[in-house]
């Protein structure tokens, strides 16, 4: 007799070896992470992917005909055919972070090991058994049936303690806050034990949320709306207020996660893994000058995770380990996506692997048989990203020149364009031999006004509407640049609309339109152009004079000459 585990598509993830006796009972834990298998004088605890955590042999029980869990998932009872009942508690749960390891050795005892300092700590809980624990960001958070304990890795002797209103089912940690999930909902706390906010929305069902459908970062909380499993709702961490109408995906979402590196909310990204096993990337909150919507990064994805310390994303997809060294590049210049990613063979991970953690330059992946494997990625990318965050552009360039690695140059190019440091962007694109992009950056540097350069960078990021808005909001408006922008994009009707609205450069639009039609040997088909073409005279000497005067005025307002936007050396 065997037991098998299948995914929602019917694909077999695991098949056990033949058992010595008939399997008489199977029961999932409340959180869905483990299940118990009962047979003759045998009780086995298995992971959701099938492999075994432990096996116990209670004597004189007979066949275990039924298994029931406690609501918190920390204990279970098994009824034997002999009439006896066996009680069991889950221990030896282990969490790791950096050089620390915390093990729930007994229901009321946690042992903490510091591998770097060869130190050991015994954390005892005399009142209640530990229900849930999480380790990360320099803190250990342990929840018992009635209280929450917050330990700092710098001081294990004096934890912050506060009472709980319900049984904790999930703990999610972030850099500055952590989230507790219970039957009452989700609550965000500071690491001093102070309640910060309570994200809420109509139809919230806490019992249907788990570690895959809840995400937390320093600025926001993401929750999956289980009413349709397609809507992701985002909330402000400090106030609990909903940030937007939420993100509506076209397919059911099975996993979501927020980027963890230190960055403003406008640059925070949300990774979505849907039912079709497609991985998408979208801004957490729509921001002007950025691509709106979701971009498909990868297909056939089993698991994905953000790096804790830098803006990197890794995934296991189609027996390959893929790491994107700067995923935000899809909103800056998606042509650089292939340059800023790396793929490694991962056939030995088996079916349904899971990324347990991603920090620094190492990702820990659990294989199909339960063993953990560490995969190394470039250790230079986090250093370059740190240099950029600290505005040390010269240091980032020197490091890239020393390493001479194309992915590193690609990351620097995308970061420089995003940070509007055009000198560094020019150097990085030259190293990548991206001639066309390099010429465009040189062209941007020659534009005298700040608004003109910002508009061209927005256009580079495929946001033409924002680029036009930047030009029109300048004081006075850079009308010719806005009109020429639309002409370059062949948006002739919009260019003429702007000229008519501002009563200026109508002849300019008509002149460029006439040249365009003559070049391709076509007749005018747009009624408005036919109408104004009969009313307005096109004189190129007059047009060139007007354009020259506007450019001179722009240069005078900007102090003369071109320039570039920098944020420090």
Content of β-strand: 25-35%
Question: Any idea what the radius of gyration is?
Answer: 30 Å
Mind summarizing the main beta sheet? 4 strands, antiparallel
What is the overall pLDDT average?
92
- Broad shape: elongated
Q: Roughly how much helix do the residues carry, as a percent range? A: 10-25%
If strands are numbered along the chain, what order do they take across the biggest sheet?
Answer: 3-4-5-6
SS class: alpha+beta
Which oligomeric form is depicted? single chain
pLDDT under 50 segments (min length 5)?
564-569
> How many DSSP E strands?
36
Spatial gap, N to C terminus: 68 Å
Number of helices: 12
What do these coordinates show?
This protein is of the alpha+beta class and 569 residues long. Helix content is 24%, strand content 34%. The chain is built from 12 helices and 36 strands. A 4-stranded antiparallel beta sheet has the order 3-4-5-6, with no helix packed on it. Strands 10-11-12-13 form a 4-stranded antiparallel beta sheet, with no helix packed on it. A 4-stranded antiparallel beta sheet has the order 14-15-16-17, with no helix packed on it. The radius of gyration is 30 Å and the shape is elongated. The protein starts with a strand and ends in a 12-residue tail after the last helix. The model is unreliable at 564-569 (pLDDT under 50).
């Amino acid at each position: 007799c065997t037991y098998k585990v299948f995914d929602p598509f019917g694909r077999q993830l695991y098949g056990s070896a033949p058992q010595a006796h008939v399997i008489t009972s199977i029961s999932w834990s409340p959180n869905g992470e483990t299940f118990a298998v009962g047979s003759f004088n045998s009780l086995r605890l298995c992971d959701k992917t099938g492999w075994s955590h432990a096996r116990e042999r209670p004597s004189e029980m007979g066949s275990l005909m039924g298994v029931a869990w406690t609501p918190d998932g920390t204990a279970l009872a098994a009824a034997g055919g002999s009439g006896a009942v066996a009680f069991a508690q889950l221990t030896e749960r282990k969490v790791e972070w950096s050089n620390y390891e915390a093990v729930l050795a007994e229901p009321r005892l946690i042992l903490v090991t510091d591998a770097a300092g060869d130190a050991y700590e015994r954390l005892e809980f005399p009142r209640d058994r530990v229900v849930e624990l999480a380790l990360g960001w320099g803190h250990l958070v342990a929840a018992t049936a009635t209280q929450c304990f917050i330990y700092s890795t710098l001081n294990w002797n004096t934890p912050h303690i506060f009472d709980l209103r319900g049984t904790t089912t999930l703990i999610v940690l972030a850099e500055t806050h952590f989230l507790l999930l219970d039957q009452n909902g989700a609550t965000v706390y500071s690491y001093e034990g102070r309640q910060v906010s309570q994200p809420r929305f109509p139809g919230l069902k806490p019992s249907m949320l788990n570690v895959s459908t809840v995400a937390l970062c320093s600025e926001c909380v993401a929750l999956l709306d289980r009413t349709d499993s397609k809507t992701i709702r985002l909330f402000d961490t400090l106030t609990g207020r909903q940030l937007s109408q939420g993100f509506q995906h076209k397919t059911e979402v099975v996993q979501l996660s927020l980027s963890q590196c230190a960055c403003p909310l406008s640059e925070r990204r949300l990774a979505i893994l849907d039912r079709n096993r497609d991985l998408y990337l979208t801004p957490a909150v729509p921001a002007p000058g950025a691509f709106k919507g979701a971009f498909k990064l990868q297909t056939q994805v089993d698991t994905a995770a953000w790096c804790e310390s830098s803006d990197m994303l890794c995934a296991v997809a189609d027996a390959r380990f893929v790491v994107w060294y700067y995923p935000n590049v899809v909103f800056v210049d998606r042509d650089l996506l292939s340059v800023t990613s790396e793929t490694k063979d991962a056939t030995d991970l088996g079916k349904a692997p899971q990324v347990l953690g991603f920090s620094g330059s190492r990702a820990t992946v659990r294989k199909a048989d339960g063993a953990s494997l560490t995969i190394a990625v470039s250790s230079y990318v986090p250093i370059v990203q740190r240099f950029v965050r600290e505005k040390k552009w010269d240091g980032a360039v020197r490091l890239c020149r020393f390493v001479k690695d194309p992915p590193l140059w690609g990351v620097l190019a995308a970061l420089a364009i995003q940070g509007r440091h055009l000198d560094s962007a020019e150097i990085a694109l030259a190293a990548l031999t991206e001639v066309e992009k390099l010429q465009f950056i040189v062209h941007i540097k020659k534009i005298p006004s700040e608004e003109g350069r910002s508009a061209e960078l927005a256009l580079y990021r495929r946001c033409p509407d924002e680029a036009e808005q930047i030009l029109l909001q300048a004081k006075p408006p850079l009308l010719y640049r806005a009109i020429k922008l639309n002409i370059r994009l062949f948006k002739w009707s919009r260019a003429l609309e702007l000229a008519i609205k501002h009563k200026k450069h109508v002849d300019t639009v008509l002149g460029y339109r006439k040249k365009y039609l003559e070049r391709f040997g076509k007749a005018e088909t747009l009624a408005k152009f036919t109408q104004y073409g009969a009313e307005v005279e096109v004189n190129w000497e007059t047009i060139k004079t007007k354009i020259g005067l506007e450019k001179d005025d722009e240069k005078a307002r900007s102090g003369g000459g071109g320039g570039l936007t920098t944020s420090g050396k």
